[in-house]
Amino acid sequence: MAGSLEEQMAGLRQQEQNIINYKSNIDWLEGDHQLLPESLVFDNKHTVYSMEVLMRDAKGLSQEQLNEFWASFNHFDRKRNGMMEPDDFRACLISMGYDLGEVEFACIMTMVDPNAAGVVTFQAFVDFMTRETAETDTAEQVVASFKILAGDKNYITPEELRQELPTEQAEYCIRHMAPYRFQGSGWSPGLYGLLQCPLWEE
User: What's the Cα-to-Cα distance from 69 to each of 53, 133, 191, rounded to whole Å?
Assistant: First the structure.
């Protein structure tokens, strides 16, 4: 923007008013956008982009991850209408290993169905699963984190664990990590091997 500060402020106010005037069109477009996946419309012959590709790219998902999410969603969409009812969604989560009480499930439902429509759309399901998978460390990430704590050694001492981790987590690691074995020699008491760490298997 050019001009004096007053002219720039006036220009910004005009832009703000234009946006406010256009809001009804944005709401209308958003409503149509929500209807597309609910109607199982993922492709548009008039564009090279598909909703599936746009969703995948926006979330940073691989095609394989998106296919897995779609297979899970589709399996539990009993009515085949592109939406899971709460009981279907709960069964889906349980099948993926979630241990849910009533309170936990109600909390999740407020995330995936904020308008209390009583259904979970594929978009909401992907949003939830993307958040969940982003928060779950892989085995490689866990080992990498421990290597940083261990100063790039292949083992870590109980003292290092207790110094760097909260007491409960440190004691859990000490109880569950396998002793470290130097090449060509026996087990070393008081040293825990990073590559034998079973933490992510539980």
Answer: 14, 11, 40
